[in-house]
Amino acid sequence: MSRNFVSSLIFIFVLFVFGAHAEVRPAQIFSSNMVLQQGLENKVWGWAESGESVTVELNGKRVSVKAGESGKWQVKLPAMDYGGPYTMTISGENKVVFENVMIGEVWICSGQSNMGWTVDRSNNAEEEIANANYPNIRLFTVPRKVAQTPKDDLDGGEWMTCSPETIGSFSAVAYFFGRKLHRDLNVAIGLVNDSWGGTVAETWISSETIEKDEDFRDKWQELQGIDFDNYAEVKKNEIAKIFGGFPEKDKGEELGYIRSNYNDSQWATLTAPGPWEAKYPNIDGVGWYRQTIELSREQSEEEGLLYLSRIDDMDVCWVNGVEVGRTNSYSDYRRYVLPSSLLVEGVNTIVVRVLDTGGGGGLVGDGDEFYLKLKDEKIMLAKEWKFKITEVNTRSFKVQPNTYPTLLFNAMINPIVGYGMKGVIWYQGESNASRAKQYQRIFPDLIKDWRNHWGQGDFPFLYVQLANFQKPVNTPSESSWAELREAQTMTLKLPNTGMASAIDIGEAGDIHPRNKQDVGMRLALAGLKVAYKKDLVYSGPMYKSMKVKGDKVIVTFNQTGSGLEVRNKYGYVNGFSIAGTDGRYHWAKAYVDGDKVIVFSPNVTHPINVRYGWADNPDDLNLYNKEGLPANPFRSDQ
Q: Which has the closest alpha carbon to 392: 548, 593, 239?
């Protein structure tokens, strides 16, 4: 019998006789530097040996409990007033000590990339970071993860004090919101950044709500049956069947795809613009597009401008085998110059290689911005193109946040449910903008879902309305982003909700506007009103009613503060349009008359409906209240 074997037997015997106690372990959301919610019985929980006695002490308060059969334990600390710093001890067979604990105000900060957007990428970043000396603002970032079923704990994360060393990589909206509250309330503020870029609302909703929703029930049931751990291998095999082999490395240039005489007759066809996911779902990688146009001799002698709207994410473009441009940004509009020497009489070939790094991919922009311009002539390119996937990124086969509903609730919300907090701030909606009618239901459902899980009643839920984005329109038209903003406005019907407008601080070419200071400030105004009952103006003018008098529409607003204000020297209000019985909208002139706006157009003699700011990007809106908050976009028609 070997000495090692004997040693192993002795070790096992010692464990058996004396017991192998599981250490007391609090949930990951608890650490030094944390903030606990003032005025609330704060839950503290974790794990230990089954039946083990656990005692939690803080600020002279002492609570004990025995761990259950599963090892889970939970206590409730008595409600406390603002104060600290304190030391928390959690004792069982071992002792855990947390220092620098404050009693203050805690806010969960969630949503997609505009919530996750960091201070170091925002306006005046260098100055903001240098001045971020707020030791009583505390920061916690929830690690990003998806899960098939609800998780009990986070994979990591710890509370940090706000300083120039820690603030740069933290949520800018959350920080500017928290800084305003800290200054006005003079208390410790805890901010939990729980966000993931590009995510849809339904991934943040629990199974209890999603399984009852007719739009998501089937997808949720599918999630229950998949092999979550081997998902990538299953998807890879499915792709190999579609393409007759797995395309691992792009060789398009090597194979001559850029040549005018290349034979693409065996390629698939794909309507552009539009994401290639319409034909090939959940594929990231490299795709090639080919298109031909015939030009007369006179046309070929003109210099051309090739407009390809937006491409997701990066592209290289060739015309007749010659590279004419490349762009490495999904939000930039493509405009490539074609010298007359490049174009030929007869058939001309346009080839675009697209690299998609995640999410939707391909020629995805606006159809009316998709053409070849020759002098005063436009040759439209919104039609079928030849298309081929030449490389598939296997990372896209991982279960992503939007692959199924509930994934982020399971992994990033459920583990912190019950942590005492004042309320939630939310910046999301861009990824649901094409489904505004549905959002009218699922966004309120999300709020009610979280309130049910936390068990703190109708806690304050504040959110940011979508900013202006993309190229302004020349004529009044329908807008998916305007409809999503409308759905967000409708959600104000829920109790203890507040909305911060960003309609005047977006950027046409960037879905991530850098001005997060005003966003945080406006959220904080809503918070001071809704959560802390301060007497202040927290909203811009909100549509109340309209009436028609002759050829004019008279619009009345709520939330006018100390009065309406027009921000231009001429006194005319921009952004209004009106329609008559034919339903066609025309730009209108408008001016302020006391607490009302008078709207009219020479093109509409008998108006019946009015709209304001009704566009993805209504551009230069200039109606505010005198407190500097912008009027909310609206329509009187439904």
A: 239
Q: Which two tokens stand for residue 17?
A: 């006789």
User: Alpha-carbon distance 424 to 373, whole Å?
Assistant: 49
Q: Is 638 helix (H, G, I), strand (E, B) or coil?
A: coil
Amino acid identity for residue 545 in this structure: S
* 224 contacts 433 by C-beta, under 8 angstroms: no
The model carries a pTM of 0.85
End-to-end Cα, the chain, rounded Å: 85
* Cα angle, residue 339 at apex, residues 335 and 342 outer, rounded to 5°: 110
> Widest CA span of the chain, in angstroms?
106
User: Which one, of 559, 568, 557, lies nearest residue 621 by Cα?
Assistant: 568
Task: Tell me how long the chain is.
Answer: 638
d(CA 209, CA 215): 12
What whole-number distance in Å separates Cα of residue 572 and Cα of residue 575?
10
> What per-residue string of b and e applies to 537-549 under the rule 16 or more CB within 10 Å gives b?
bbbbbbbeebeee
For the stretch 258-313, pLDDT in tens is: 999 999 999 999 999 999 988 888 789 999 999 999 999 999 999 999 999 999 99
**In this structure, what are the phi and psi dihedrals at residue 611, rounded to the nearest 5 degrees?**
-130, 155
What span, in angstroms and rounded, lies between the C-alpha atoms of 286 and 268?
Answer: 15
What proportions of the chain, in percent to the nearest 5, are helix, strand and coil? 25, 35, 40
In contact, 595 and 556? CB cutoff 8 Å: yes
